[in-house]
Design goal:
Jelly Rolls; Spore Coat Polysaccharide Biosynthesis Protein SpsA, Chain A; 2 domains; eleven-stranded mixed beta sheet; 27 strands; globular
Length: about 450
């Protein structure tokens, strides 16, 4: 199935797909906690509990995108309000997502999500709950049979310590982006409210024109059936988020970006696609030369919990993937291009070899991009279309930070922005960096 960008977008009218619409008073009914009910809409304010319900009986597909049209008058309370989809016969929960995670501020509808059906013969019930501080309106809902909610999305994994950089990155994204391209920020659950409050303030001050979609890493893991080992650090966890985002079925293709980046040019995601497959961020390289380089510079890496020369880590990954050629992919960057179908096939391949999916791979060698790239190269060669893994110009040295502050450093023509790494990221103020982008001193 093709993309679904919004609840009543013409692109959602997929030939042969099952499409179901419900309007207020015609299948979409007010719940017991609703405070405002009109002939054409349900209004939630000062409500506590279920404000709207809908029973769907005529399902033909196995996976659907649900879009709810209406308006969000304030994002307050959305993290504690939910869309819940249950199987009517036994109450089994098929999907549960916060309205904050489903919030779509840049399209005609206000909430959207994707869910799977266990038994098409069984009716499902959709319920929308609210808390008193929420203020939103529901007009209608629509289900469209599809494999993924969107064709493409950006994914930024962040933490509270990186919040100033995350804000600068998102401001630059709003400045140069296509509104139709969804943008997800994934943070630990205990950081969600801090990020929500910050982006609400940005929106109120009109420094951004739309909110990003905010979801917790715990939600990503729950949807994907992923259990994080107790010994994992944040470095390990963010790698699982980047791989595991494929299991949310939010986007068929996605680009992961780090917080310490800024866009300096218009971004067109289709430049990353060849046909319907995203490029693999990799450079083909001679395996012997690649490994010899790391041995010569004595770069260290992790393999099965031990610190070794990183060439041993990459060699083990090649062996695991059955790569007996003298070529491999050089995939070490801070931006990752992922095709969700291929990522899911990578997980299935690992499980078939007795490894516990994504976490099992990261336990062997914590290099998510290299695992994905080597799998596509070795096991799905027809879909391996290498692309320079560096989409951003790297700024990392102290002299780079000085040159940038003086306006003497620009992103390279082929790049779409700048990527900061220590010590430069610690020497540059993200607010000042964005100001230079906004007034054209950094391009």
């Amino acid at each position: 199935m093709n993309r679904v960008f919004g609840p009543f977008d013409e692109a959602a009218d997929i030939k042969g797909a099952d499409i179901i619409s419900r309007h207020v008073g015609a299948g979409l009914e007010p719940g017991p906690s609703v405070t405002g009910y009109y002939s054409t809409c349900i209004f939630a304010e000062d409500s506590q509990g279920v404000v709207a319900t809908c029973l769907i009986t005529e399902l033909r597909g196995n996976r659907y995108a649900l879009s709810i049209s209406g308006a969000v008058l304030s994002p307050a309370g959305l993290n504690d309000s939910f869309v819940t989809i249950t199987q009517k016969s036994d109450g089994a929960v098929l999907h549960r997502q916060s309205l904050l995670g489903a919030y779509r501020a840049d399209r005609g509808g206000c909430f959207s999500l994707v869910f799977g059906v266990i038994d098409r013969e069984q009716p499902i019930e959709i319920s929308i709950s609210a808390v008193p501080e929420t203020r939103f309106r529901i007009d209608a809902l629509r289900l469209v049979e599809t494999d993924y909610l969107f064709d493409f999305a950006l994914v930024n994994k962040s933490y509270r310590k990186d919040l100033p950089w995350t804000v600068a990155l998102y401001r630059s994204w709003c400045r140069f982006s296509q509104a139709e391209c969804p943008y997800y920020v994934v943070v630990p659950a205990h950081d969600l409210l801090m990020f929500l409050d910050t982006f609400r303030a940005e929106l109120d001050a009109r420094r951004i024109d739309r909110m990003p979609s905010l979801v917790s890493e715990e939600w990503v893991f729950k949807v994907g059936g992923i259990t994080i080992p107790p010994n994992y650090t944040g470095w390990h966890t963010q790698q699982i988020v980047k791989l595991g985002f494929s299991k949310t079925r939010i986007a068929r293709q996605y680009l992961t970006i780090d917080s310490t980046m800024v866009f300096t040019k218009p971004f067109e995601y289709r430049r990353l696609l060849k046909g319907d497959v995203i490029y693999t961020a990799a450079n083909l390289t001679n395996k012997s030369d690649f490994f010899e380089y790391f041995r010569c510079v004595d770069e260290k890496g992790w393999l099965n919990g031990s610190l070794v020369n990183i060439s041993e880590s990459f060699d083990a990954m090649c062996e695991f993937m059955g790569n007996t050629t003298n070529e491999t992919n050089a995939y070490i960057s801070c931006t990752g291009m992922f095709n969700s179908d291929l990522a899911l096939e990578l997980e299935a391949y690992a499980c078939a070899k007795g490894i516990n999916g994504f976490t099992g791979l990261i336990n062997i060698a914590p290099y998510e991009f290299a695992w994905y790239g080597e799998f596509v190269f070795s096991q799905r060669r027809s879909r391996f279309v290498p692309h320079d893994p560096h989409l951003m110009t790297l700024v990392h040295a102290e002299e780079h930070a000085t040159a940038l502050r003086e306006g003497a450093l620009q992103s390279e023509d082929r790049h779409m922005g700048i990527m900061f790494q220590p010590p430069a990221s610690e020497l540059c103020d993200p607010e000042a960096v964005y100001a230079m982008v906004a007034d054209g001193r950094i391009r």
